[in-house]
Amino acid sequence: MIDSAPAVRLRVVTREIESVDEMLVFADPHDPTVWSRRGDVLVARGTAAAFVAPESDTGPDAVAAWWRRTISSAEIDDPVQLPGSGLVAFGALPFDPHRLGTADPSTPRLHFAVPQVIVGRRGSRSWVTAITADGRTPSADLPETTGFGPHWSATTGPGALTPDGYQRIVRAGVEAIRGGEIEKVVLARDLAGTVPADADLRRLVRALASAYPDTWAFAVDGLIGASPETLVTVSKGTVTARVLAGTIARGADADADTAASLALATSTKDLDEHGYAVRSVLDALRPSTSSLVAGEQPFMLKLPNVWHLATDVEGELAGDASALDLVAALHPTAAVAGTPTPAALDAIRRLEPFNRGRYAGPVGWIDANGDGEWAIALRCAQFRPRDRPADDAPIPFTAYAGAGIVGASDPESEMLETRVKFRPIIDALA
Question: Which of 220, 307, 311, 355 could cross-link 92 (Cys pair, CB 3.0–4.6 Å)?
């Protein structure tokens, strides 16, 4: 690890390799770093350099400044020139950095690190990147592979908020809305559990990526999940985001599924919630983009377990902003916090009896060009593989799910929505 003040001088070598079918064998079984969607995969190991934030400065702005200094001094040899090749860092940032000062010391903090080796695949092309920080010339050889460990299952139980407790804080949120304090607030609840001490966490990543191929399947510093929501992507000057707000469970048969989709598409409550979220993204992106457009009406996004109201946003980057700069501008969106955002954050701090840590925070990667892919950390669980004791004690984890609360919200319905959102991670853990 290095201090956040001086940037380390990195040497980076990327070389194209023959096609690789099973990428996860290159990841650490107990602490995997993986980014995957629709067959495009990045797998990383080791740490060449990392940002270490002071207690008072733990947001993406500070990370973006450190990253600019780091890439300005890096020596990069990358003939592949594909998204994710060359110098890349992975990050998992907290939902509410201002709450860290009072957090339990075990609450995961900001993570932003450059690995020592990355194996990547995009489309039909594959590559390996090696990174050193000690002056040596990197050798872009494939790392050793590790076969998958035995299957395992998790033990899961209640967290700090029971279903009844969640309905209680939803009622308090509705009262705050009707009292004029806020227009919308996103409230989460938690589940706690353990996995065996020797659990191969790559199995969880593979289960999520296989069951939900259209999501961002990720594993970064013990945060593992499959998020359907793009916070922002930047690629060669094009900026895109996908806003999800408004959810309903899939129907048990074709007729029920059609009815569920129609109910969501015509729900005034969900359309209002979605509108708040879209406006917050547009307002945050406008200062850094040109030609910014969004769909006039949300479309229905079908996932294996839910329907979402979704809106895609696209624009052209203006100036020299990086993906991290846009993360700083966007987070937290109304889709995961509420409206107005400062008042919604105050309500979350008051009503939720836990620190979310990285749940609903930004997770993703950025390269030396400032391009990158960042999702909102949803449908996920936070593990603590690095803190596990030397004996066979199980590894603890916490999973979260939330719902957007507006004036018309029904507490029981919102609790049932969180149950549906827990399903991807709980099914994969089982």
Answer: 220
What residues does each domain of the chain span?
11-429
Count Cβ atoms within 10 A of the Cβ of residue 428 and give its class: 0-12 exposed, 13-18 middle, 19 or more buried. buried
Long-range contacts of 396-399 (CB under 8 A, 24+ apart): 396/192, 396/193, 396/194, 397/154, 397/192, 397/193, 397/194, 397/195, 398/159, 398/190, 398/191, 398/192, 398/193, 398/357, 399/156, 399/159, 399/190, 399/191, 399/192, 399/193, 399/425, 399/426, 399/429
314 classed as catalytic: no
pLDDT in tens, 77-93: 999 999 999 999 999 99
Question: Which tokens hold the place of 231?
Answer: 């916070």
CA distances to 37, 79, 234, 321, 428 from 238, rounded to whole Å, are 19, 22, 6, 12, 34
- Whether 184 is catalytic is yes
Q: Which of 16, 55, 229, 302 is catalytic?
A: 229
Instruction: Exactly one of 184, 273, 373, 414 is catalytic; name it.
Output: 184
Classify domain 11-429 at the CATH topology level: Anthranilate synthase (3.60.120)
